[in-house]
Amino acid sequence: MIPNIEKASKADIKAFQEDQLKLLLAYLNTRSVYYKRMFNKHNIDVDTINTLENLTKIPTTSKDDLQHYNDDFICVPKKEIIDYVTTSGTLGEPVTFALTNNDLDRLAYNEAISFACAGINQDDTIQLMTTMDRRFMAGLAYFLGARKLGAGIIRVGNGIPELQWDSILKFKPTYVIAVPSFLLKLIEYAKQNDIDVNASGIKGAICIGEPLREQDFSLNTLSEKIKSQWDIELFSTYASTEMNTAFTECKQLQGGHQHPELIITEILDDNDQPVAENEAGELTITTLGIEGMPLLRFKTGDMVMAHHSACDCGRNTMRLGSVVGRKKQMIKYKGTTIYPPAMDNILNDFNYIDSYIIEIYQNEIGTDEILLKISTSQPSDTLLQEIKDHFRAKLRVLPRIEFHDKNAIQKLQFPKMSRKPIVVIDKRV
Predict the structure, then answer these.
(1) What is the DSSP string of 165-206?
(2) Secondary structure of residue 51 in the 3-state scheme
(3) Residue 271 carries which DSSP code?
(4) Are 346 and 337 in contact (CB under 8 A)?
(5) pLDDT tens by residue, 303-318
(6) How far, in Å, CA of 49 to CA of 14, rounded?
(7) What is the pTM of this model?
(8) Residue 94, SS3 per DSSP
(9) How many CA atoms lie within 13 A of 260 on its CB side?
(10) Is 175 within 8 Å of 309 (Cβ atoms)?
């Protein structure tokens, strides 16, 4: 199930996207209060935007714009809105998105071809380990995608290893959708209850929320820990509510494939210009085929690197590597630039660490400081020194480190109304 446009030549893909871009600009210029205002303010004639390169003539859209003018982005009357979802609010106040019936069909199509990209087909059954409630788009997308693909789906929801294993043993799913670190909890529960994970019938996991690979696509520490105990394939996927689209890895495991019929991507520098090839920049997206709240040059806040080499799966689409970090969470620490995922990788090296929180704040002279709050069943000066040594060796920095009670860490990770665990708390103004 590879759409023809994803196997087309790069020139044909570009021409297709430019035709879709013209349709989008005309739609926004007619329907969007926000974008009509922006076009007028900057004297932009949308009829002159004919190529992907012309996009740089249009100002970018920020998360702040979405928060401050949320309703102005809605392009349809209320009677056409079928579903409301909200962003998780990781870096600010949640934003509401309105979806029409056609938008839900598009969401289903996106997830169906994303599942197919990872090798899932109608003979498979998927166990969903994320929530479908609380206005969370991802859980709904997975359900709709599995239904469109013709695969079975078991809606267990997040957490509760006992219930997850009960469903796995009872219904025999072949794939799971989960946050990678939760797979370690499933492994631990299985050990304690004499369950053979490798006899479970699970072939693979579609992983969300946490990186699986280094920038060269090799497994990171978290993935190695999972695969050393559970012989399953791990597929990375990148998605967001704002995109209504997912970048999922194929069997080659070389980054998440773009669906060019659904989204235009740019990788931009601090001046909103395209970065050079093989350089990281901020992922900026333009959505195609959305009625309710299409976005034009929306800056996601995620720092990524694009890969354009041919893929053995037959797709000629751009691929996204692992997220380097969130732009707003970049830390300038004693002359070194750090993103939290680099610290995740070090902390995942330690089997005795149950959970942790990374707190970023500014000291009295205005420079960045890092505090690691760690929960472990075996706190000791030796473990503390080992963690410090790892940070010095791998990142050449030494943050403050404190041991905390597991329950206290979990309260920080799952604040009220949270739909997914929080690992980074940025207290900087």
Answers:
(1) HHHHHHH--SEEEE-HHHHHHHHHHHHHTT--GGGS---EEE
(2) coil
(3) T
(4) no
(5) 999 999 989 999 999 9
(6) 14
(7) 0.81
(8) coil
(9) 25
(10) no
